[in-house]
Write a structure and sequence with these properties.
Order of helices and strands of chain B: HEEEHHHHHEEHHHHHHHHEEEHHHH
Distance between the termini of chain A: 46 Å
Number of strands of chain B: 8
Helix content of chain B: 40-55%
Largest interface: A-B, 33 and 36 residues
CATH architecture of the domain at 55-332 in chain B: Orthogonal Bundle
Shape of chain B: globular
Number of strands of chain A: 7
CATH architecture of chain A: 2-Layer Sandwich
Distance between the termini of chain B: 62 Å
Oligomer: heterodimer
CATH class of chain A: Alpha Beta
Structural class of chain B: mainly alpha
Strand content of chain A: 25-35%
Number of helices of chain A: 3
CATH superfamily of the domain at 55-332 in chain B: Cytochrome-c3 Hydrogenase, chain B
Largest sheet of chain A: 5 strands, mixed
Shape of chain A: globular
């Protein structure tokens, strides 16, 4: 926990403009960062020897409809060496839900990003293989969005 | 007439790869998984898994159920380890609510969790052996020991496969009379049973031939691809959430984490064999030290009052009604909580908007992430090795597709 805060301090010192917001809830730290800097920040967190966030536990997206910016992409990071966690977030507007893919940093993000694309409709720029992963290729819409009709696309109001 | 040169060209062996479709219904997938394998002769050049045949919208479903109502759904996630999914989910919601169980409740959860781990590993071992051609061990593992565990589960919760025994803030009821003795009986003989399995398999030349050096995942790749659980520990990653971030009193028990460095099919087998012994050790310790006291947290807004109280006190009746009808309302916030399920890191990321239902619930499924390393493990191996590698990951498709 304390160490994660060091990570946030380091992050704020190195990217004063890119870290938009830091919050702590139930001893878990979340940092909201600017979306254009996600790759740079990810590389910093992964490669700095005293942070070493080499393991991406989870990548997912949250739909805040009808609020704007509508989407949040969540990165749950972990360090195998120091055993600490940090949650990063990027906010995306509804008309342009695009963020850089983090596959070059954490190859495990590949399927997570495909899932976020499939179910939430987030576009990951420069993803090596951005296809639907759980739903059929010809599926319409993204079911985890809050405005998705619960009875299926054919029952849309 | 064709010239000599032209004819030679016609019969020149071609180096063209073959696309082979494995599944969706293939016995080795133990579920519905389709693999499109690119083969050069019998060697795997590349493979692409196609998922989603069992997709049932578990995460979307959470958004229209109260926190309590979602517990039975988590059982169905990884149906080989029902209680462990309950465990992860309940801990995540408890983290959100900031409540903690009394010692007896925590110990009972550990007891159920470790029995579940043995239960899951047994089925894995049995089916893995069948896939590699050893047809008899499965009868001992699935037919004998697993049956005993299912009887124990039935005794405690009424459910044999889906226990749904955990509740937010506790467990459904205290352990039934005679249960502790039955579990004691089981764990006192179980380590010898594991010795029997090992006698059948561990030094068996065919078993070793199929496993040693097959499907190697390096430590570096394991981290990069997000592998967890026995797959990661067979690749030299000494990392188990029960030790690294102890939850539910796991730090009270003495057990070790088996780690192997070869990263092959055989190491994954050895890890799980040893984990079963360690789980039996933990169960033994729980039984020896099981404290007295309540099994549920003292949180009247979350944990329903005991039945006798609802029948005699109007306040308890109202509480019960409100919790069941409306659900409790955790504060606005978000938590990520993960546990070491038999398959690896099972995590729940819950976003609460202050309402009685999760605003967003994301499951971090260990099998989904572990399956991603299949292509890395299988490249350059024979097609028959692919089957051994696939089952050595121990996937449960219901959890992968959710």
């Amino acid at each position: 926990m304390g160490e994660t805060n060091t990570a946030v301090d380091r992050l704020q010192a190195s990217f004063p403009e890119a870290v938009l917001e830091v919050s702590v809830f139930r001893a878990q730290t979340t940092a909201v960062v600017r979306r254009e800097d996600i790759l740079q920040i990810g590389r910093f967190l992964k490669e700095e020897p005293d942070l070493a966030f080499d393991y991406l536990t989870l990548l997912s997206a949250v739909d805040l409809y009808p609020r704007e910016p509508r989407f949040e992409v969540v990165y749950q990071l972990y360090s195998m060496k120091y055993r600490h966690r940090l949650r990063l977030k990027v906010r995306l507007p509804s008309e342009d839900p695009v963020v850089d893919s983090v596959v070059p940093l954490w190859p495990t993000a590949n399927w997570h990003e495909r899932e976020a694309y499939d179910l939430m409709g987030i576009q990951f720029k420069d993803h090596p293989d951005l296809r639907r992963i759980l739903l059929p290729d010809d599926w319409e819409g993204h079911p985890l969005r809050k405005d998705y009709p619960l009875l299926g696309p054919s029952r849309a109001a | 007439m064709k010239s000599q040169g032209e004819r030679r060209e016609m019969y020149e062996p071609r180096t063209e790869t073959l696309m082979l479709n494995v599944g969706p219904h293939h016995p080795s997938t133990h579920g519905v998984l389709r693999l499109v394998v690119e083969l050069d002769g019998e060697y795997v050049v590349n493979l692409t898994p196609h998922l989603g045949y069992l997709h049932s919208g578990f995460e979307k479903l959470a958004e229209s159920k109260t926190y309590h109502q979602y517990i039975p759904v988590t059982d169905r996630l990884d149906y080989m380890a029902g209680s462990y999914n309950n465990f992860g989910y309940c801990l995540a919601v408890e983290k959100l609510l900031d409540i903690e169980l009394p010692p007896r409740g925590q110990y009972i959860r550990v007891l159920m969790g470790e029995l579940t781990r043995i239960f899951s590993h047994l089925l894995w071992l049995g089916t893995h052996a069948v896939d590699l051609g050893a047809l008899t061990p499965v009868f001992y593992m699935v037919g004998r020991e697993r049956e005993q565990i299912m009887n124990l589960f039935e005794m405690v919760s009424g459910g044999r496969l889906f226990q749904t025994y955990f509740r937010i803030g506790g467990v459904a009821a205290d352990l039934p009379e005679g249960f502790v003795e039955k579990v004691r009986e089981f764990v006192s003989t179980f380590p010898y049973k594991v010795d029997d399995y090992e006698a059948l398999l561990t030094k068996n030349p065919i078993w070793m031939e199929r496993g040693v050096g097959v499907g190697v995942l390096s430590r570096k790749d394991a981290i990069a691809l997000g592998a967890s659980g026995p797959v990661a520990r067979a690749s030299g990653l000494a990392w188990d959430l029960r030790k690294a971030h102890p939850y539910s009193s796991y730090d009270h028990f003495d057990f070790s984490i088996p780690v192997f460095h070869e990263g092959d099919v055989y190491s994954r087998y050895l890890v799980r064999i040893e984990e079963m012994r360690q789980s039996a050790r933990i169960v033994q310790q729980v039984l020896d030290r099981l404290p007295d006291g309540p099994v549920s947290a003292d949180a009247p807004k979350v944990v329903p009052p005991p039945k006798e109280m609802t029948l005699t006190r109007i306040e308890s009746l109202i509480h019960h009604f409100l919790i069941m009808e409306e659900g409790f309302k955790p504060p606005v916030g978000e938590v990520y909580m993960s546990v070491e399920s038999p398959h690896g890191e099972l995590g729940f990321y819950i976003v609460s908007d202050g309402g009685p239902k999760p605003y967003r619930l994301k499951i971090r499924p260990p099998c989904f992430v572990n399956l991603q390393s299949l292509a890395t493990m299988a490249r350059g191996r024979l097609l028959s090795d692919l089957i051994a590698i696939l089952t050595s990951i121990d996937i449960v498709l219901a959890e992968i597709d959710r």
